[in-house]
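Hey forum,

I'm writing up a methods section and want to include a predicted complex as supplementary material. The small molecule is magnesium ion. I've pasted the protein sequence and the SMILES. Can someone with a working setup run it? I'll credit the forum in the acknowledgements.
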Amino acid sequence: MELIVLAIKDIFRRKGKSLYLLIAIVIPVAILSTILLTFDNADSSLSTLASKFGFTLIVQPKNIRVDKISQIGVNTQEYIPEGVIADVERIVRETIRNPKDKVITVVRFYQEDDLLIGKAKVSSVVAGIDFKTELEAKPSWKLTSGRWPENDQEAVLGGSYASSRKVSLQDTVTLGGSEFKVAGILQNYNSSEDYMVFAPFAVIQKLYNKSGFVSVINIQNVSLDKDKKMLQTAVAEINKNIPNIMALSPQQFSTMKYALLKKSLKFLMAIVVATIAVSIFSIFNIVTSVLYSRIKEIGLLKSVGASRSQLLTIFLSEYLSIGLMGGLIGYPLGLIMTYLLDSLLLKLGAGIKINILYVLVALLVGVFCSLIASFYPTYRLSKIKITDSFRSQWEG
Amino acid sequence: MDTSKGTPFLELKDVNKTFNLASGEVTALEHVSLSINKGELVALVGPSGSGKTTLLNIIGSLDRPTRGEVLLEGIRIDGLSEEDLVHFRREKFSFIFQDAKPLRMLNVLENTLLPFNFFKPKNRNGNIKDEGIEIIKSLGLGHRIYHMPSQLSGGEIQRVAIARALITHPAMILADEPTANLDRANRLFVIDTFRKLSKEKGIAIVISTHDLEIANRADRIIHLKDGVFLKDEVVACTPCAA
Ligand SMILES: Nc1ncnc2c1ncn2[C@@H]1O[C@H](COP(=O)(O)OP(=O)(O)OP(=O)(O)O)[C@@H](O)[C@H]1O
Ligand SMILES: [Mg+2]
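Reply by user p_vandermeer:
Happy to help. Structure tokens for the complex are below, copy them as they are.
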């Protein structure tokens, strides 16, 4: 029989204590995996979002405070004067220097409001949009049911209302005291738009007493899409020449959107470090008490000829295997937690993906916790004299 | 026993052992000299605290004397390093402790073969597992070979310890109160087994005991009191001859 076999047999003999050790390792590994996987999702949804946007350049009010951004991540508090639209278009055209190159300008007005959809009261974001230009810029935008609005008192609902609110076509939605007919319901795009209600731009602007103001100006242009340098020039020129606004590329915009998540990275890592510390402390305690209860066994093994390094091999391989098991269990648990967190809270559209690098990180953290915590007690007890081990009062 | 021919297997010369405690020094052995030959069965007797365990530990080089010499086949071993002693332990000595239970996760056979998890058996020409089974059977545990320790009685557990002590072909077996928790039949079985082994295999066996009936079945009885030799008597085991 090999020493390792002795070690494995011992894990199963001490199921209770081994289980404690396992839990002490699984928890930090699962938390760390959850954070890593969530950031990974944020990153990938950030890049898909950037491409899904279909816009080349975004202009929004300057100094949007993070805490003022509405629940679903759009700005509903700060506005830009309409006069800026022409200035932005002019600068874009001057930058691309090609009169035939088409520039599409999509303007939106956002307002947060308590709406009445059918009979249900819902807090949501109302988006005033021009359906024609919006569809010109995003031909992929599709309805699951109904049609696009044909007059000023019709609205379209975001994809999330299709199933969750039991809203049907022909229902009315009351925005700012005015009734609109639900003309159509959009597809789900896994974005903030799923939670919006869309109605004609001018009507909404007037309804909320914000005539002459917009929330965001989106520019779509092929040349700027292709030439990142030219895009940077346009962004810089707009920011230089127009006060109180901020121009960004979609990539920058998405990054801003996840700024909050990124800002919390340090805090989350502190949590991970704290759980690892707690884990190491508990493992240390469990291992110490287990080893003391094994003290006569250690004496017996030494008396039949076990050397210190052989004892260390037995004990450390025991804790090494538990560490590995902890990593192997902690990672899938992290996957599940990531998935739950995402479907309940973050809505980044996370799927279950196996990331080999993170599996390795999980295993390493498991082994690290286990070995760091067990090394000292193991090392110390392997030094005990046979005679002392049998005089000890500890019972196995 | 005949001690005249050549060097004794193991010799203690004027051994002293003191323990330093917070409350002061405790003298456990004083001026102890003795020699033990191969094939001899020696019993250490004496009241509790008289130094039996301490003496056994020094004989088996589990502990070092404070003063004096320990010689194994004429060579001093009391100054050897722990690493060197590991080899002596593997090749020369087997220990049986009063309260060292067999490992709970191993069955009787695996417990018997335990030493060979740590080193390879030397000079064997049979299968080591078969030999283990032979030894277990010879101790009357033939029906327990694959049983776990939790399924055994106290007497059977002590036999497992003897089997484990025998598998390494030791020159000497040291047993601290090997019969302490056994009923009379099992006590007699253990001591008679030791007696047989010392005679048939030439193993030197030293046991400690409180039990004079057991001690009287040895070849020699060493009486200790307060760490000093009272007497070293050769006994003729009358019940054994019968
Ligand atoms: N490691 C030690 N530290 C301190 N004192 C010790 C140690 N080992 C033994 N002693 C002391 O040495 C003396 C002899 O102890 P020892 O255990 O050898 O006696 P014993 O004859 O085996 O007793 P018992 O029959 O109770 O087992 C006792 O006074 C004991 O307290
Ligand atoms: Mg004793």
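Some notes you might quote in the supplement: Residues A 391; B 19, 21, 26, 28, 46, 48-54 surround adenosine-5'-triphosphate (ligand 1) (CB under 6 Å). The longest strand of chain B covers residues 24-36.
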